[in-house]
Amino acid sequence: MGCITKHYLNEYSVLGVWKIEEDLTTLSELVILDNEEKKKIKTFSSTSRKLEFLSVRALLAELLGSEAKIVYNKNNKPFLKDGSRFISISHSHKLTSILLSTNEKVGIDLEFMSSNIAAIAFKFINRKEKISKDSDNRRYHLYIHWCAKEALYKICDKEGISLRKNITIEPFELKESGEIKGEVHTDKINERFDLHYFKYDNYAIVWTKKNYELNNSESVSKKR
Description:
Blueprint: E1 2-8, E2 13-19, H1 24-28, H2 35-42, H3 47-64, E3 70-72, E4 78-80, E5 86-92, E6 95-101, E7 104-112, H4 135-156, E8 167-169, E9 177-185, E10 190-200, E11 203-211
Antiparallel strand pairs: 1-2, 2-6, 3-4, 5-6, 7-11, 8-9, 9-10, 10-11
């Protein structure tokens, strides 16, 4: 199917979502891989992982053009090779998402909503957070919390953050889409964030962005 969403959040930021319905041959024809990318995709044994890899490149080309390339740091965090934008990537099952911004740090996470998330809720939900007791809504509510915390983990770009201990999502009324508040508290971080969530088919998607005054250590070009 290809790109199903290309949404300009403001003059600086764009969010794209790709639905993977192509086979490997078809998706390969949509991208131009450099030598490093060709080597990388050969290391993947599963077809699904190769499709994810190609869908990220296809979506990036849709958003920025075929010349845009992704590189990774030692912690496997993605950056644009030319340092022109902040980038966050997420994929699950048949969806891939990318959030880009020229002047705002970004974080995005999407998850296919399986039925067993309640069994691991204790790993990421803390006592301050309120989860719906209604069985029809509980799963979606839990997935919004999970995706929101993953998005905040990405935007903070700090190791050692506990999703349960250090990140709290403020109570909110559950809807098909909406805005929520999240807080990150560690020894080095004390930040409050606005997040946005929505549902697509059986997926929960949450994203956030925040404008920071960039110094030399935080500039996009220095993070390549």
